[in-house]
Amino acid sequence: MNLTGKSELIQLLDRHGFSFSKSLGQNFLIDKNILDKIINASDIDKNKNVLEIGPGAGTLTCELCKIAKKVVSVEIDSKLEPILNEVMADYDNFKLIMQDAMEVDMKKLVHEEFSDEPFVISANLPYYITTPLVMKFFEEDLPVESMTLMIQKEVAGRMTANAGNKEYGALSVAVRFYSEPKIVCTAPPNCFVPQPKVTSTVINLKVYEEPPYIPDNKEFFFKVVKSLFSQRRKTLVNSLSKSPYMNIDKNIIIQTLNEMNIDINIRGEKLEIEKLVEFSNILLNKIV
């Protein structure tokens, strides 16, 4: 079955009485070239386990099963279950879990399905859960080696933005804190059925084996980051001293910047992650 062929895919879906859900952000990939780039960027072989979120009709899933040790796909739409059961019937290294990915106990899944072995994520993610789901995988301390994701172009831009760029923000810092992001390719709307209104981007997030950034207190560090970017037009001093996430005296913030030889009128968006970690550590030591 050629699922990258639009007519054949539509016939399959029609036979099962399937209709696309806008609320679930369903757009199925039909471009073989983009599909190959996702597979190549995922760096999968017969010894690697794969977790896929939102398999759709199984276009990417089939290709993953051909080369991976095991593929576990999590799908929220019950209407896709009979379609996936048909499409994936010949693959004994495939497991379908019908559940909302945001509600899945990922530690339990990794233990039961992968025996706690390292795994990679390779998926055409529904746009509406991209950021919360990526952060879920980062923050739950799972043995994820990499994520190769099809996401909205604008979100990919924010994930890969450097300090000083208008797209640089809390998401940029969080992604670089946990991984090394790299743009793989872009995918215009005509690569999907139905066609989305936005251009998509394939991004690879290679998770660090050893984290290069080690704040003294990770929770405090991310509170500082959220404070700085929740009011980006303000200076670092003003945004942090008026933060809804923490209560820090303005004079202590100024003292910290002076100690680091940083202009007290600087905005948080001008600081690379290394400086943000250093700033967070010095600031924390002054208030504890």
**At the fourth CATH level, what is the homologous superfamily of the largest domain?**
Vaccinia Virus protein VP39
Q: Termini separation (Å)?
A: 63 Å
Strand content: 15-25%
Overall pLDDT, averaged?
95
Order the strands across the largest sheet as they lie in space: 4-3-2-5-6-9-7
Count every helix, treating DSSP H or I runs of 4 or more residues as helices: 12
Report low-confidence residues grouped into runs of 5 or more. none
Query: Briefly, what CATH class of the largest domain?
Result: Alpha Beta
Give the tally of β-strands. Answer: 9
Quick one: overall form?
A: elongated
CATH architecture label name of the largest domain? 3-Layer(aba) Sandwich
Q: What is the domain tally?
A: 2
Radius of gyration: 21 Å
- Give the proportion of residues in helices: 40-55%
The H/E string reads: HEHEHEHEHEHEHHEEEHHHH
Question: How do the strands and helices of this protein lay out in sequence?
Answer:
Blueprint: H1 6-15, E1 28-29, H2 32-42, E2 49-53, H3 59-67, E3 70-75, H4 81-87, E4 94-98, H5 106-114, E5 119-124, H6 130-139, E6 144-152, H7 153-160, H8 170-178, E7 179-187, E8 192-193, E9 200-207, H9 218-230, H10 236-241, H11 250-259, H12 273-287
Helix pairs in contact: 9-12, 11-12
